[in-house]
Amino acid sequence: MSPEEKKRTEEIIIGVAEKVFIRDGFSGTRMQTIADEAGLNKALLHYYYRSKQKLFYAVLKRLAPKLFAPVLGVLYEELPFFEKIEKFVHRYIDEISQKNPNLPLFVISEMEKNADDIIPILVRAIDSREISPIEIFRRDMEREIKAGNLREMDHKQLFVSILSMAIFPFVGRPLIMQLARFQNHEYDLFIQERKKFIVEFVINSIKIQKTGVE
Amino acid sequence: MSPEEKKRTEEIIIGVAEKVFIRDGFSGTRMQTIADEAGLNKALLHYYYRSKQKLFYAVLKRLAPKLFAPVLGVLYEELPFFEKIEKFVHRYIDEISQKNPNLPLFVISEMEKNADDIIPILVRAIDSREISPIEIFRRDMEREIKAGNLREMDHKQLFVSILSMAIFPFVGRPLIMQLARFQNHEYDLFIQERKKFIVEFVINSIKIQKTGVE
DNA sequence: GTCTATAATGTGATAGAC
DNA sequence: GTCTATCACATTATAGAC
Fold first, then answer.
1. Are B67 and B39 contained in the same domain?
2. B119 and B24 within one domain
3. Using one digit for the tens of pLDDT, what is the confidence trace for B139-176?
4. Which nucleotide shows the minimum CA-to-C1' distance to residue B41?
5. Fewer beta carbons within 10 Å, N or C terminal of chain B?
6. Would you say residue A214 lies in a domain?
7. Where on strand D do bases come within 7 A of a protein Cβ?
């Protein structure tokens, strides 16, 4: 078989594995399931990736850059602070909606269960730059506070709040749907409208309104 | 053996099972693990609960009332709206901090993976009252908007925002710790300070400031 | 490289002695 | 009720033919 077809099989496997791992979690995933959905046999999975663990780590390594870079990248752009928040929220929700709404829950679950092995793999993707995202965020805030545009507040609390409001609707979907009485078809629209809501909600809370009078 | 000791064994098993299931998830849990941590043997688990599935559901049923009632109950109290939000946030964070910080992620993960079986068990705990929590919340908001204390906004968006800010720090702990560069010992303090932050953050965003002049 | 067959191990569940 | 021993089956992993 040609090298191209070899490459192709390897890619098919890891692509299907990604889908199944994200859907079922590590311990919930069966090698047989991956083989079936890929239209191949189990032995090939081991031929290319040796073990379930190694296949899983291969999936994670491939996933990591796609996971954080597009979103965290926004923080490094040269933008006015409030516009940066807006772009960050929109980018995050758009990315996850299109790519895979189950991604955040998958990443969090596996980080929790197997922290020592998984976090190092993911961290390389987060910490690819010299200055950390949270430090960039802190400096932005400091500048705006000095300029009198922003209330003083803890930068980590604000950062986590924005993150929470954007991510949790994906992670907590089944819980939210029950508590807030959503029908299945309503939820996607809710998420789309949420982009605008979050930005308004946040800016309204943190911005210092400049009045005409002194 | 006396009926009391019988009762005691049964209770030990379900107590340990709760701990292990919450920690490892359903598919990650081994009956052997539960037996070991309970200081008993596997056969006893089956003697009392027949199967892993049935033990899991027994755990869920026992857990459900403790899970939602204390927090959602706040929504039904006769309180000014802003005080209700404050009490809700404090109650939620205090409850989870004391009880088990892994509870939210556990509930969400299992709801996601096995919706049809699990949601009915949990819903009984959520929907124990005639009027749903979200409907109570909506009416409270409507009243405040008419009174001129509150900006007009979608009640579900606000509800989910408050929920997100309170729950996500527990669910997304490993992710947040990486992104915001927390040390282990800092995080508990961060969560405690978060109660006050969320309340201020929310009220500052939604409240209509009444000025002296007209 | 890909397959079938099978080994090796893990895991839920049960039988039967005490 | 509680234990040890064991079954039955699922699942990861490998051997070997093509």
1. no
2. no
3. 999 999 999 999 999 999 999 999 999 999 999 999 99
4. D3
5. C
6. no
7. 1-5, 11-16
